[in-house]
Amino acid sequence: MALTHNLGFPRIGSNRELKFALESYWKGQRSLDELYALGAELRRRHWQFHDGLDWIPVGDFSFYDQVLDMSFMLGNIPERAQGFGGAWLDNYFRVARGRSAPAATPEDAGITAGEMTKWFDTNYHYIVPEFSAATAFSLDASFLLAQVQEARAQGIRAKPVIIGPVTYLALGKAKDGSDRLALLPRLVPIYRQLLEALAEAGAEWVQIDEPILVTELDAEWRHAFNLAYHDLKSSRVKLLLGTYFGPLQDNLRLAAELPVAGLHLDGVQAREEALPLLGLMHATKVLSLGVVHGRNIWKTDLGAVLDWLEPIAERLGNRLWLAPSCSLLHVPVDLEREQALDGEVKSWLSFARQKLDELKILATALNQGRAAVSAELEANRIAIEQRRHSSRIHRSATQAALAGVTKQLGQRRHGYEIRAARQDEQLRLPLFPTTTIGSFPQTSEIRRVRRDFKAGELDMGAYRRAMQDEIARSIREQEALGLDVLVHGEAERNDMVEYFGEQLEGYAFSQQGWVQSYGSRCVKPPILLGDIHRPKAMTVDWIRYAQSLTERPVKGMLTGPVTMLNWSFVRDDQPRSVTCMQLALAIREEVLDLEKAGVRVIQIDEAALREGLPLRASEWQTYLDWAVASFRVAANGVADETQIHTHMCYSEFNDIMEAIAAMDADVITIETSRSDMELLQAFDRFKYPNSMGPGVYDIHSPNIPTTQRMVDLMRKAAERIPAERLWVNPDCGLKTRQWHEVIPALEHMVEAARILRDDRT
Ligand code: GLN
Ligand code: ZN
Question: What global pTM score does this model have?
Answer without folding.
Answer: 0.94
